[in-house]
Amino acid sequence: MQNSIKLSLISVALLSQVNASEVHSVKDMFTDGKTSGQIRLGYYNSNPDAIGKTQSVTAIGGQLKFESASFNGMSAGVAMYTSQNIDALSGEENDGKFSDYLTSSEKSYTELAEAYLNYSVDNFNIRIGRQLIDTPLADSDDVYMTPNTFEAVVASYALKDLGLTFIGANLQRMQGGDADYLNVTNNSWMDTGDNGTNMLAILYANDAIEVGAWYYDVDKSAKAIYVDATANFEIAKNNVLALSAQYLDESEENNSAIDGTIAGMMLEVSLDKLTASIAYNTIDVDATKEIFEGFGGGCSYTNMETTTAGTLNTDSDAYLISLSYDIAKLNIFTSYGEFKADYSANGHLTELDAGVSYSFNDETQVSFVYVNVDDKLATDSGADEIKLFANYTF
After folding, report:
1. Which domains does the chain have, with CATH numbers?
2. What does the pLDDT read at residue 5?
3. What is the pTM of this model?
4. Checking DSSP bridges between strand 74-85 and strand 124-131, what pairing results, if any?
5. Which of 110, 206, 208, 362 would suit a FRET pair with 86, their CA atoms being 20 to 30 Å apart?
């Protein structure tokens, strides 16, 4: 659930990306198409206070994708996602020691997760079908075995000389770890509102400033406005300071009880191989309401591996400090966050994340993360977690 201060630019890239090369016939669309994918081995171990026993799962899975070349601006793509439990390396389900974090309640899933048509001409692009999307309140959140994807229509228009991008979309359904893979045998796709979610956005970027404004209408549930801005300052060669601010305002529809605000700031300093950041979010929610953090990992600056800015679901403050250091192909990182309700009896959590990742080359990477959530009020909200992934991308 880790966030990124570069979210606006990431959104532009993933909402309007066109990887297909132009060819001269329909036949060449397929003969010149590209196959890609990823094989992922994952291990997850959790010792939650609420259950009092260790749960674990080991799985193997990944993605296989084919994307055609482009003919007269038209291209297509399909991708299968899968995750399969390895019983011998997972906790026993009968003993309550199996975790479905990396697979599903059925211990596996296989999905046609991407299947889209794409049309691009000049600065205009439209993609229809199942696709990857990364926006503040709807994102891929690739922290499980496979990312979230959406059934959607997404159109974008870029005025590149002005640094402006306009986006409009309708999101109907999503699948992935954040959709919980409920009843995966028959339906692993979750509706994004009774009749979907409409989204509009205006983004601006130049070498020093990134600004994004997003509007979401989750049918019969909520309307949301999200804005963020980042200013980048080069303080020396390879040394950059970035100052970011964000604001989310939500209002309920049809007595959904979704109503509240999240505001935040973040300061990040990159000094050659060392990156350090501090972040703050304040959350305002009425006693009978709740915050909707989106279809995916959420966008708040203080979001961590497990805890998010809105976890306490009450008036609260969240603080985060993070450090990351690169040594050759090795990255060492750690974060500490505190999440405290304004009225202390409503909740007080801290989280420590620490880990390493190593890239053998452009294709192969391994990562290890340790997570400790400490429930200061002893209400069984704490846990210790271990996450281990090995990826091979082709």
Report:
1. 7-393 (2.40.160.10)
2. 41
3. 0.91
4. unpaired
5. 362
